[in-house]
Amino acid sequence: MANEKAFNVQSAYSDLNKACSAQAYDKIINISGKILTKYPGETKAFLCKVVALIRTEKYDDCLNFLKKNPTLSSHVIFEKAYVEYRLNRLTEAAKTLESAEANDPKAQELKAQVFYRKGDFAAAYACLRSVIRNSQDDYSEERLANLTAVAAAESCFNNTNLDLDVNPQMYEGKFNLACYHLGRGDYHLASRLLDDAENTCNLCLSEDPELTEEEKNEELAPIRVQRAYILQINKEEEEANQVYQSVIRQRASDTALLAVAANNIVCINQDQNIFDSRKRIKMASTDGLQFKLFSRQRTDMLINQALFYWYTNQMEACTAKLRTVLQEELSPRALLLSAAQLIKEKNIDKAVLLLESYLSNVTGNQIDAEIPLALAQINLRRISANHLGTGSPQPKNALNVAQMLENILPQHLIHSPGVLSTRIALYLLASAGENAVQTRPDSMKQIVSCIESTLHYYEELGEQNEIYSHLLDNCAGFLLQQGEAKLAAEILEKQLARLESNVSQEKQNSLIKQVLVARLVRAYAQFDRPKAEQTCKSLQAKESLSEADVDTLETTFLYGAKSLKRLSKPSEPTDISDKGKSKRNQIKKNISNTPSSDPGVQQVTSRSKRKKKKIRLPKNYQPGVMPDPNRWLPRRERTHYRGKRRDKRFAPTRGPQGQITGESEWDAAVRSPKVKVHEDGSAGSTPKQMSNTAKQQQKKGRKKGR
C-alpha cells in the first residue's frame, strides 16, 4: 500500500514536471492540486500551484489559496507580496515584505515598486540603490530607468531633488531623466532630453519591421505629452492643446496617459469651450484610473474638475468631487474651494467653521499657510453674518485678525516677512479713522513687540540668514518714519556690526555702511544729540573733502550753480576790442582772466569753448527789412492760418429734412409789411443770379487751390 502511494506521488511529480516544461499552467494547477489533496505538506507542489495561478493572472484565487494554507505561505513570501501588489493592496504587500530576507534582491526590488506606487519615493530610491549595488545581471539598464523614474517623481510631486548621476542608454531612461529635470524647473534641458529620447525611440522601433504605425505612435505618446506640458508651462497653450488633442485622437491603450492629457486640456480651456471640457472630464473619470495614477495626480484631477463645475455653477457636481478628495486626504486646495463654494452660496458661517476645523486637526509645521490666511481674509472682510464687504476693512476686524494670526500660525509663518508686514498694517488700521478701536501709541507698542520678537527669532536661527538682513533694513526705515528712534538705532547698530564682521566683502559693504551710518545719525539726533555728533565723525565723506570743497558745496547749496556763475562775474569794464563779440564770449573771457581761489569756480571757467556755428540766412533775406512777426510762431497760431479745408460735397446734410408745419409763423418775410412794386418794367436792384456753369467752375477752382 505504501509502495502504491509512493508510486502515485512520483508519477504525479513526473507529470507536473512535464507540464512545467510545456508551460501548461492549467494542467499544473490540476496536478499540484491533486498532490496537495493527498499530501497537504508538499512544498514544491504548493509553490508550483501558486506560480501557475500568478501566470494565469488569477490573483484573487491565488490569495485565497494562500490564506487557506498559512503554514506553507511562509515559503512563498515574495509571491504573496506580488499578488497583493497586483491586487493594489499596497499596504498589505509592504507588510508582507517586511518578513522577507534583507539580502533577497527580488524582495528588495518589489519593495521599491510598492513604495513607488504608494508615493514614498525616497524609500523606493534607497531600495533600488541597494539592488543596483548588489546585482550583476543583464537588467542594469532597466534598473537605471526605474531609478530615474523614482527621482523624477520625487522632484515633480514633492519638490525634492535626489542625487542622480546616471547616463541612461534606453529611451525610457532618457524620458525619465527629462522628467527629473522638468521637476527641477530646467525646461530647456528637459526639452533637449525629450528630443533625444524621441530620436532613440524612433531608432529602436525602426529595427522591428513588424511594428505598425499605431504601435509606434503609442510608444511615442508619453514623450509628446510631456513636450506639450513644457509648451503649456511656457504659456504656449494653443500649440500644447494641439498636441494633446492629437494624442487623444490616436486612442492609445494607456488610459492613465489619456487621462493626464484630458486633464491638461481642461486646464487650458478653463471656463471656455465647455462642451469639450465635459468630454475630457468624462475621459479622465474612467474606472480603474485610481490604481494607475499617483495620489497627487488623482487629487489634482478631481480638484480641476471641481473648479470647472464651480465656474459653470454646477454646485452639486462640484460638491461631489470635493467630497471624494476630502475622503482620501485633507487637501488644502479642496478645503479652499469648498469654502469658496459656501461663500458663493452665502453660507459664510459654514465656510469659517470648515477652515477652523482644519486648523484644529492639524498643528505645527503641517499647517498650510493658505488656510489661516484665507480665514483671516474672510474675517477681515466680513460685515455681517452672510455678507462680505469690498471696501476698506473695519478697524475692529483688523485688530481681531491680527490677534488671530498670532494664535493660529506656527512660528516659521508668524515671523515670515510677509506675515509681519500684514500684522503691522492691521495694527495701523486698527487705530486709523473715526471708528478706531485703540490709540496710535497702543498700536505702535504692539508693532514694536512684533518686530522685536521676529528679530529675536531670526537671531536664534543665525544672523547670516538673508531674511534677517532684509528685515533689519526695512524695520529700521519703518521705525524711523514712525518716530521710534531708539529701536531703530538698535537695529541699525546690529546691521553695522554684521557688515563689519564680514571682512570678505569689505569693499562692497563700504557704501552700504555709509548709508547706515547716515541713518544712525538721523536716529541719534532725535534722542541723543552728542552721540549723533560723535557718529558723524565716522562718515568717510567728511574726511575726504577739503575745507575749500566744503565752502564750495555750501555756496552751491545756498545760491545754486547758475547764481555761482553770476557771482564770479568781474566788475571791470570789458575791453573795447571785445565790443563786437557776443555777450556769452565776453563773460567767459572775463571769468578766465579773474583770479579766484575757489576751485568750484575754477572748474566752471576751465570749460572748452564751443565752436560758433556759421549764421545761415534765408534766401529771400533783405537787409533792413523787418522780418515777418509770424515767423517764430507755430503754424497754427499764425494770423493767416485758416486750417485744413474739407470737401463738404459728400457730407450728409444735418438738421431736419422735411417741411415743418407752422413754418409761416416763424417766417419774418411773411410778417414784414409788403412793399408795393411799380407796374412799370424799370430795372430793380436785385443782383444777377449765378448760372450753374459758373458755380461748377467756382467749385473746381476751390478744389484745385486746396
TrEMBL record:
Pfam families in alphabetical order: SRP72 (PF08492), SRP_TPR_like (PF17004)
Biased composition (Basic residues): 607-617, 637-648, 697-706
Protein location: Cytoplasm; Endoplasmic reticulum
Coiled-coil region: 482-509
Region (Disordered): 568-706
InterPro entries according to UniProt: Signal_recog_part_SRP72_RNA-bd, SRP72, SRP72_TPR-like, TPR-like_helical_dom_sf, TPR_rpt
Entry GO terms, CC: endoplasmic reticulum; signal recognition particle, endoplasmic reticulum targeting
Start and end residues of each Signal recognition particle SRP72 subunit RNA-binding domain: 594-643
Name of the featured protein: Signal recognition particle subunit SRP72
Organism: Schistosoma margrebowiei
Organism taxonomic ancestry: Eukaryota, Metazoa, Spiralia, Lophotrochozoa, Platyhelminthes
